[in-house]
Design goal:
With 332 residues, the chain is mainly α. The protein is built from 10 helices and no strands. The longest helix has 85 residues. 12% of the residues are buried.
């Protein structure tokens, strides 16, 4: 409700503001072009409108208070109905007087009352009738009670039997479900073990492919000892030991440039699933001399660029980890 009121107030303020601005523009235009002053014509209209609205609001509030305080004055028909209903409620009701009964009628009434009383006592079973058939009725009642007892016993026995049967069935069902669940849990554990074995096997294959690719790619630029250090740095990046990186320097006669190192870091990290920032930190720590003018942020943004380099970008196929450059060399 508050939001609706605010929306209405905003709309009203927008309309009033637009009206004022348009009035000012039109008045200034007419005054400047035709020397017509709108104030002489609009001031009486505005004052009359204000007086009418204020008087209407005052009279409305006055009549509202009068009607709320004296609501019965205007509901004439309802007042009449209320008066008629109250008069009917307050009038005493005339009870019919019973005429005097004659003696034979009194006697008949007494006999009828006695018969009715006897029937009620027989129904309720509170009074015992003084009749010779008393013993027969009592025996019948006793037989009925015995039959009722036997019926109740049979019902209770059947209920207990059904309850026991249902309990045993539910127990057997739950036992079977538990056994089945244990069997599925055993299968789940076996599946998890197989998945872990497959993941470990895949990681081993990925590291073998990376070692082969790195050895083949950087052999013209690094010494054998530096290649071993680079492979150790790759292992540290794979397991998250970023503080164990060792620095390397490429051959002075055939050095590696910044685009080559950025592409190398991207190709390796893409197979390992390493974020770009970790790749940038790895390549910056491994080759600090070659990348002395580049920051980690710059390397992170430009790992995969289109600058020509001796080590190009090697994007793997979806779900694959093998290097395309190695496939070409094997095919050749």
């Amino acid at each position: 409700m508050a939001n609706y009121i605010q929306i209405r107030a905003k709309k009203a303020s927008d309309v009033i503001g637009a009206g004022v601005i348009s009035y000012a523009l039109i008045g200034s235009f007419l005054l400047y072009k035709f020397h017509i002053n709108l104030m002489e014509y609009t001031t009486p209209i505005i004052l009359g409108f204000v007086v009418i609205t204020v008087s209407f609001a005052c009279t409305k509030r006055l009549f509202y208070h009068i009607m709320m305080e004296n609501s019965n004055l205007l509901s004439f028909s309802m007042q009449k109905e209320f008066i008629s209903v109250s008069s009917t409620i307050n009038e005493p009701q005339n009870e019919p007087q019973s005429e005097p009964q004659s003696e034979p009628q009194k006697a008949n009434n007494d006999t009828q009352e006695n018969e009715v009383g006897g029937q009620e006592t027989l129904k309720s079973g509170q009074e015992i009738p003084k009749v010779d058939k008393k013993s027969g009725q009592e025996t019948l009642k006793g037989g009925q009670e015995i039959l009722n007892d036997t019926k109740n016993d049979t019902k209770n026995d059947t209920k207990n039997d059904t309850k026991n049967d249902t309990k045993s069935d539910t127990k057997n069902g739950t036992d079977e479900i538990i056994e089945h669940s244990y069997s599925y849990l055993d299968k789940y554990a076996m599946l998890q073990e197989n998945i872990e074995k497959e993941n470990i096997k895949r990681k081993v294959l990925i590291m073998e492919a990376i070692r082969e690719y790195v050895t083949y790619t950087v052999a013209p630029y690094l010494k054998k000892e530096d290649v071993l250090i680079l492979l150790e740095n790759i292992n540290c990046m794979a397991i998250g030991h970023t503080s164990s990186y060792k620095n390397i320097r490429s051959d002075l006669n055939n050095p590696l440039r910044s685009p080559d190192l950025r592409h190398l870091a991207w190709n390796i990290g893409e197979r390992l699933g390493i974020p770009n920032r970790e790749r940038a930190i790895f390549i910056k720590a491994s080759f600090p001399f070659e990348l002395r003018d580049a920051t980690v942020e710059y390397l992170e943004r430009n790992l995969r660029d289109v600058i020509p380099a001796s080590i190009p970008i090697d994007r793997p196929a979806k779900g694959d980890y093998k290097f395309n450059s190695m496939k070409k060399t094997i095919a050749a």
